[in-house]
Amino acid sequence: MPGSTRLETHLMRYRPLGAAEAAAADAVLALAGAARALSALLARGPLAGSLAAVRGEGQGGDTQKELDLVANRLMVDALRAAPVAVIGSEELDAPLSAAAAAPIAVAIDPLDGSDNIDTGVPVGTIFAVLPRAGDAAGGLLQPGTA
């Protein structure tokens, strides 16, 4: 595609800016890899198994489907391989500590819209990359203005 830039190429521009910027680029690349794996699974449709089966209830009272748990595992595993200090996920009861010395924290909804998976409505991943803080939540609880 003329004029387009690969994600990897674009994110390479952030590496020289500092440790936090390089870590953020690595985290985004890790999430992109997990998203590709999730996309391949979704493309299999019913052949991938009972992904819409209810498996539990999340903290907010919404139902957790098999697909939510699979997406969470893919995203968390990817982020644990990146320089991320703390991972907060909608699917988890508490933040996960990862690379303690890493400069960033990531908050994520691994699969937003999974309640609509049976109807073919689009789903997506929502995430925020934040500076790590020394508080108990590792920087996940920040005002929206930050």
Automatic annotation (TrEMBL):
Pathway: Carbohydrate biosynthesis. Gene3D superfamilies: Fructose-1,6-Bisphosphatase, subunit A, domain 1 (3.30.540.10). InterPro entries: FBPase_class-1, FBPase_N. This is Fructose-1,6-bisphosphatase. Residues 34-144 form the Fructose-1-6-bisphosphatase class I N-terminal domain. PANTHER family: FRUCTOSE-1,6-BISPHOSPHATASE-RELATED, SEDOHEPTULOSE-1,7-BISPHOSPHATASE, CHLOROPLASTIC. It holds the Pfam family FBPase. It comes from Labrys wisconsinensis. Signal peptide: none annotated.
